[in-house]
């Protein structure tokens, strides 16, 4: 069973920005907002489209295709047309390495 994987150094994710990563075969977005790290799947639940083509709006990510916004903490859609949440993943920092556990939901 897969567990936490080191995906980036602590300083690789800019404040107010994100990077694309892949963990356990899943394309993800790793974002930092107000010092907190979030990991969500890089796929809009409305249309099979990468959220990484969009942008952060506070602690939300906006899909550039149809404008849906998703909460980075919960994955819940906050704006139509998306109705289904996106997956979130547990993030922790150990020894300046960011680890993501694809088997645990974010908090």
Walk me through the topology.
Layout: E1 5-9, E2 17-23, E3 26-33, E4 36-41, E5 55-56, E6 60-62, E7 69-71, E8 88-94, E9 97-101
Antiparallel strand pairs: 1-9, 2-3, 3-4, 4-8, 5-6, 6-7, 8-9
Query: Within the CATH hierarchy, at the fold level, what is the topology?
Result: Rieske Iron-sulfur Protein
Question: What string gives the helices and strands in order?
Answer: EEEEEEEEE
Strand content: 35-45%
Q: Let me know the largest β-sheet.
A: 6 strands, antiparallel
State Rg: 13 Å
Average pLDDT for all residues: 95
User: What is the CATH class?
Assistant: Mainly Beta
Strand order of the largest sheet: 1-9-8-4-3-2
Number of helices: 0
Shape: globular
* Unreliable segments of 5+ consecutive residues: none
Under CATH, the homologous superfamily reads Rieske [2Fe-2S] iron-sulphur domain
C-alpha end-to-end distance: 21 Å
Write up this protein.
Keywords: 2Fe-2S, Iron, Iron-sulfur, Metal-binding. This is (2Fe-2S)-binding protein. Pfam families: Rieske. GO terms for molecular function: 2 iron, 2 sulfur cluster binding; metal ion binding. With 107 residues, the protein is an all-beta fold. The protein has strands at residues 5-9, 17-23, 26-33, 36-41, 55-56, 60-62, 69-71, 88-94, 97-101. The protein has a single domain, classed as Rieske Iron-sulfur Protein. Helix content is 0%, strand content 43%. It starts with a strand and ends in a 6-residue tail after the last strand.
